[in-house]
Amino acid sequence: MQIYLDTANINEIREAASWGILSGVTTNPTLVAREKGADFKSVISEIAELVDGPISAEAVSLDGDGMVKEGLEFATWHPNVIVKVPSTTEGLKAVYQLARKGIRTNVTLIFNASQALMAARAGAFIVSPFVGRVDDTGVDGMQLIREISQIYKNDSEIKTKIISASIRHPRHIIDSALAGADIATCPFKVLQMSMRHPLTDRGIEQFLADWKARG
Q: Tell me: the pLDDT tens digits for 5-16?
């Protein structure tokens, strides 16, 4: 399973990229808006210099034609740009039209397996089920990943990848890999948390203490 960073913060992306584990980046209008004064195109271009992998840039239009227009523009920014659209019927129209033009899409805000199936059939490159938000409703978000994974495996024509999104904690990363996700896209703080363990810290402290105490 690949690891993506879910952010538009260049400093976070630069740091995570230095670890050698980053395969892509996902952004959305909220994440870009947090970077005060940042120009969307400039942000995407700067990310592309740091990460050699898919970069999701989300359209804000609600109609299919508007999404296609935005997507065509985004695609000129860099070959790694993936056009992100919502899981709506208008989004499906955009996915279908963009796919026919050779432009890859990421269908976001997926909350049930039927949405993921329809997105794949329309030609989505990636689907983004939101496991954390599903958990918030009292339903097991990982069951959604398992269902989508099984549906895709049952149909050899489907090549769409599954991004486990709305990752809230390190266990979500592991459970996503076990459930069959191709990618987990995570906030930077979750990536940091995933590499921390008190026994690791204690072991380092003990090693250093033993080294200093050597005769």
A: 999 999 999 999
